[in-house]
Amino acid sequence: MDRLxxxxxFVRVVETGSFSxxxxxxGVGQPAISKTIAQLExxxxxxxxxxxxxxxxxxxxGLRFFERARTAIQEADEAELEAxxxxxxxxxRLRICAATTFARIMVLPHLSQFMDSHPDLDVDVxxxxxxxxxxxxxxxxxxxxxxxxxxxxVARRLATGRRSVxxxxxxxxxxxxxxxxxDLAAHQAVVYTQxxxxxxxxxxxxxxxxxxxxxxxxxxxxxxxxxxxxxMGLAVASDWxxxxxxxxxxxRRVLEDWELPRIDLWAVFxxxxxxxxxxxxxxxxxxxxxxxxxxYDWPALSTQPLI
Length: 307
Known about the structure:
By secondary structure, this protein is an alpha+beta fold. The protein has ten helices and 15 strands. A hairpin with a 2-residue loop joins β1 (49-52) and β2. α1 (3-16) packs across α3. The two termini are 34 Å apart.
């Protein structure tokens, strides 16, 4: 039995709460994980897990072993990174997740470049608009936008982008061009439920808040895109959301001399685990391709203290 592999299997079982989830993360069958844990308990001559109908619970000895084992795995990872160099020789499997529309427009068309640069690396992509649990899903790095719900998250800001009011030329021809934020009250708004219907603008120290009305509300970016492109109304959206349409004129910005609150793009890593070289390399890559395609500012990495 390989000691480090057994420790890794045990740590994943405790983190995920089940043999099956740990097996999916590691890429082996569930029986192999069960056998490894049993062999580990035999080696240590102590019960590490209590198995019941409610799941798996580490014993006191199991909790102590878990903390030491996790630290040992992190130190082993750090040693490998030191030996290999932070960006060279990336291999194995990388699991990433991102919101569906953001990934489809901004990242996935360029993913082949990243994979071509690292031919020994396999990539699993989980597309989900929800904020999922990174540890239970075995995610190495997630791309998220806006304020992070968990202030303790291990994260790095990749870019800061602007939001704009968007509409199609056809909608504006039919309903007129708003000239000041107050004009929006007379228009149909396509409301993104994450932002609500109170839009706040600023210009030269002046702030204007407008309560918009709209018959259509959407919880995901794909709904906002479809509604705007169907000429249903105006929407506040990140510029990336309509990057192709802004480039070809299918969608226009409205009230361009007014500023909306900006939005951050983050790379988020599993809490309590060392961010791997491949996860950090992908975060750098994703940030660079997003900045290259849209009106995002690229921050100096030295100013980002979280990772």
